Amino acid sequence: MMKLDYLFSYGAVSRQPARILEPLSWVGHIPFAFWLVEKCRPRTIVELGTHTGNSYFALCQAVEANGLDATCCAVDTWQGDCQAGYYGEDVYLSVSRYNQSHYSGFSRLFRMTFDEALKHFQDGSIDCLHIDGLHSYEAVRHDFESWLPKMSGRGVVLFHDNAVREEGFGVWRLWQEVSPLYPHIEFDHSFGLGGLFVGKEQPAAVLELLEGWGRPDGKRLVQDFFARLGHLVESEWRNDNHGFLLAERERLLTQRDAELAECIRAIQSMNDTLSWRLTAPLRWIGRKVLARK
């Protein structure tokens, strides 16, 4: 029986995410994020594509919980894209307020494109890079190649959605190309996450993880371990928010019914007005006929 001692992490097993918002696509990987930060103790973490902040604030939470002297940076335009959808200013304001009130001592938001942010980071300075922007093959390959020189000797690059093979998604294709070139692990749950250990000076915890990954049944055990923890986190959030979601659904349905009723009244009013106008000549003729009588 293969030992899983190297997988144990208080953060991964016991820590509850402090903040989760929809969409939940990354939530299943939060336990691995907790493990990675606790075991690898990165000095600089950069995320490309933050959206509502589930992954980013999980990384920040782990940095704070482990008392690390680290810097976290989120890079995003906070406008959305053709795959994730476009959204309003409220998303950025929510992220900014939470960041300011909880992690402003070591976390910074860069509201710009990924290419524009490159100049703010020295080569060899980033220990952990999470790429989760536009998911086309061309875009994710450009992001990886552009930011690879920024990675340190301990560097790990995380790719989200590498299990998605829908039209327009090409992370899986890039992952097939680059994963044979570096030590790596990958998960299929929560749309997939690949961890590419591009640095040659990995900490002992990563070496143990990779050794376990290479043993008979090791890959399956590692994947199952983090998948089960991830599903538990997501299930607990859904259970905790079930009542709220039902109330919100009821509120939206009531709002929809009110707006629909208003539209019906407006259409009826227009129809009545149009009918009155169309029948005006008939009413004029009728009055003339009556007058002659």
Q: What would a concise description of this structure say?
A:
The protein has 293 residues and is an alpha/beta fold. The chain is built from 11 helices and 9 strands. It has a 7-stranded mixed beta sheet with strand order 5-2-1-6-7-9-8, with helices on both faces.
Can you offer a commentary on this structure?
The structure is a single chain. The chain is of the alpha/beta class. The chain has two domains: 5-240, Rossmann fold, CATH 3.40.50; 245-292. 51% of the residues lie in helices and 15% in strands. It is built from eleven helices and nine strands. The protein has helices at 10-14, 30-40, 54-65, 89-102, 114-117, 137-147, 171-178, 204-214, 218-240, 242-278, 280-292, and strands at residues 44-48, 71-76, 80-81, 85-86, 107-111, 126-131, 151-160, 184-187, 193-196. A seven-stranded mixed β-sheet has the order 5-2-1-6-7-9-8, with helices on both faces. Strands 3-4 form a two-stranded antiparallel sheet. Strand 1, helix 3 and strand 2 form a beta-alpha-beta unit. Helix 2 packs parallel to helix 3 (54-65). The longest helix has 37 residues, at 242-278. It is elongated and about 105 Å long. The termini are far apart.
